[in-house]
Amino acid sequence: MSEADYTDWGVVSSGEGGGRIASTFLSREESPGIGERVTLLNTNRSDMVNLMEDADILEEYGEHITIFGPRRGVGNDFAKGERMAEEHFEEIYNAVTERMVGADALLHVTTLGGGTGNGSIPYLIEQLSTGSNVEGTRPEWVESAVNMAFAAWPYEHEPSQQQFNAVMGLSRLLMRRDVTQNADAVLLASNTHIENEDLSTDQYDAVNERIVTAIDLLIGAGRNAERIIDAEDYIAQPSNIGVYHFTPGVATDLHYDMLDYEIMFDRAAEQSFVPMDASTSRAAFAVVRAPAHLVESGEVTKSGVENAFGRWKRDKGISSAKGLSTVTLKPGRGNNVDVLLLLGGFDLNPLLDQSWPEYEETKRQFEQARKLQNDSETAISMNEIEQLEENLTRYLEVNGSGR
């Protein structure tokens, strides 16, 4: 299979949190599958200056950055962030399509606690998918591209407004206002759940490093693999049963000579990026990344991984879960392997429980403000809050026990 046959990915971020993750790919010497197809969107230029750390880096990667809207940010007002994206959509659309040209799949990265990314990314995905606010004909590659989202849930200690934003953001990533599916797949990561306990490491850097590792494994399954798992595979069968939310579970540097595959899968599941029970999953993919010499010698094989993954799923009671498994290559002569589990359709309530009380309290405060007629130009209406909550509840009725 030639390089030209592999899936071309593009990474689109919006907001400071998403920009921190996406900028990692720009700072590398090489990002296979992505290259320089990276676009950083923001409403606050100072955030991008801080992100790039110094003027030289900002100048080097300046062409990847697009500042839209007020340039001083939108605070934590996701409704304003969405409105800015709508009002400045032509600018955003041109930046994304020029930088992403030819991409087969777009990974949209954002944090769900803020205003810019949480406001703009669900809107951007909808527009790229439907073209309802696009003047003229969308390029063929835009019409056919897969739109996946990687969304980070706020820390438990963050204020109630951020928790409210997260619930509203998840609803909008999953479903449009007309109750149709929005993103082709939504990958979720809870900052609190995956943060590194090593206090010598910046908490955001540690979390972002794990997220980037998961993205590498996800994309790598479509390259240099014994069985290609491509972007379409992640969405085709799961979406047929109404599943399009996922979370990665990643375990790295596992010693092949000491652990069997089922234990490796357990290790990855134990390190899922959100609180969840693997036995509630209705979709499951497994990627084992092994040194090339182990694969070439026949010690690590596609059939061996596939059989073990089948046994692992049966042990978890999810033998009917949709998904595939594969083996990918990594350089080096050691015997350590990395494992990615991508689990989907699981009960979302353990994640939502982290934020739901704060969501309800913030909603109550919005309602009180309306009674006082304390409306702002960008404030979300109670009717819209109720609609977005209803849409999320509708999705949960299929993927979990509801609320």
From TrEMBL:
Tubulin/FtsZ GTPase domain boundaries: 11-193
Signal sequence, start to end: none
Taxonomic superkingdom: Archaea
Matches recorded under SUPFAM superfamilies: Tubulin nucleotide-binding domain-like (SSF52490)
Protein name: Tubulin/FtsZ GTPase domain-containing protein
